[in-house]
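User: Can you recover a sequence for this backbone? Please restate the input before giving your answer.

Assistant: Of course. Working from this structure:
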């Protein structure tokens, strides 16, 4: 089956007893055993729940993975990822230097005290990553693809090759593109990571995350952590994620079509000093992303000429909502320096140019003309 069909049929056929088209919400924490030593396959919902299993099976299928595990949030999935690193061996985690701020917070406040050493790299600079990996000591490379909010584009095949040579695990945070546009495991990654909260669920109404593993062995290790630490999504949340997945293809196509129009509008606006969208032919990541993915996604960042404008824009938008997060059907505008990326150390923020004039847009499925008119009004 092709991807649009897998998506539309997400969860269908899970209940042969009734034929229910919509996967039932199995709101049960525990399951009775037919006899001593026998199981229906479901014993206790932290370990497995039928609604969650339906979601995990679709996620594994979409990415071509051996096994997927769903978590209560994208952060819980990241936490499980870092727990994969065995104690006593290589202990460095190399990560994209402009990742979601929560990734840095988790690395600095929890992974570092637990003995891991975070190292931040421009993962779009393949040579720099190769040098770091060749130097030894890296247990895991985590690439955000594209990075957030600067939308820099890594060469995933090249990074996968360098990780293999160095014996490091390679995980791609594919939250922005989703399997509809890019499948990390087909490009050599060991794991694909998702904040399901974003495009996969797509309606700004549920928190969830996932790790999809390329091999059964890795998938079983992730599932062990999932069960042992217990950061699992409830059945209702899994159902919402399944329902969202069904329309991922049409949502994302519309969202990226809108994003291109908005990026073109911003690039021509006299008060906008920089527009970051890999879908623009002049963007540094354009060719690389075009060569690797089936689209450019629907995240657009832009810089205005003066910091004072930011407050005005955030106060005056009417179609965009001033809110954190991304990937839903409603367009959002975010101020990374004080919201999503406040946890990045200030010197790193300065070096990256992640300044207080930068705004990030998550483009939804509204009419592009309304979105453009809203921005035009707010920009003054
Ligand atoms: C790229 C990326 N990864 C991970 C996360 C964390 O996901 P969650 O908010 O579901 O915990 C986010 C959240 O914004 C994100 O943008």
């Amino acid at each position: 089956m092709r991807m649009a069909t897998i998506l539309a049929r997400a969860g269908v056929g899970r209940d042969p007893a009734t034929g229910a088209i919509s996967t039932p919400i199995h709101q049960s924490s525990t399951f009775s055993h037919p006899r001593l030593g026998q199981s229906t396959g479901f014993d206790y919902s932290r370990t497995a729940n039928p609604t969650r299993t339906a979601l995990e099976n679709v996620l594994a299928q979409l990415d071509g993975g051996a096994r997927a595990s769903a978590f209560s949030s994208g952060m819980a999935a990241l936490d499980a990822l870092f727990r994969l690193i065995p104690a006593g061996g290589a202990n460095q985690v190399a990560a994209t230097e402009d990742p979601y701020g929560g990734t840095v917070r988790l690395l600095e406040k929890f992974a570092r005290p637990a003995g891991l050493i975070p190292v931040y790299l421009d993962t779009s600079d393949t040579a720099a990553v190769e040098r770091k990996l060749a130097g030894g000591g890296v247990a895991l490379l985590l690439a955000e693809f594209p990075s957030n909010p600067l939308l820099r584009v890594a060469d995933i095949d090249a990074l996968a090759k360098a990780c293999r040579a160095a014996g490091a695990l390679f995980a791609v945070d594919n939250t922005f593109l989703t399997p509809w546009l890019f499948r990390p495991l087909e490009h050599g990654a060991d794991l694909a990571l998702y904040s399901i909260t974003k495009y996969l669920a797509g309606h700004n109404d549920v928190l969830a995350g996932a790790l999809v593993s390329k091999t059964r062995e890795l998938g079983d290790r992730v599932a062990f952590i999932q069960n042992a630490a217990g950061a699992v999504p409830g059945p209702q949340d899994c159902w919402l994620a399944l329902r969202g997945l069904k329309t991922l293809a049409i949502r994302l196509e519309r969202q990226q079509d809108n994003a291109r129009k908005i990026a073109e509008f911003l690039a021509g606006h006299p008060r906008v000093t920089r527009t970051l969208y890999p879908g623009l032919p002049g963007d540094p990541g354009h060719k690389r992303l075009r060569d690797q993915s089936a689209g450019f996604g629907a995240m657009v960042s832009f810089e205005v000429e003066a910091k004072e404008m930011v407050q005005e824009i955030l106060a005056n938008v009417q179609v965009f909502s001033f809110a954190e997060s991304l990937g839903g059907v409603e367009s959002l505008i975010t101020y990374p320096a004080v919201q999503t990326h406040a946890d990045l150390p200030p010197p790193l923020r300065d070096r990256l140019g992640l300044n207080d004039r930068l705004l990030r847009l998550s483009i939804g499925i509204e009419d592009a003309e309304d979105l453009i008119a809203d921005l035009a009004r707010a920009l003054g």
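That completes the design. The longest strand covers residues 138-144.
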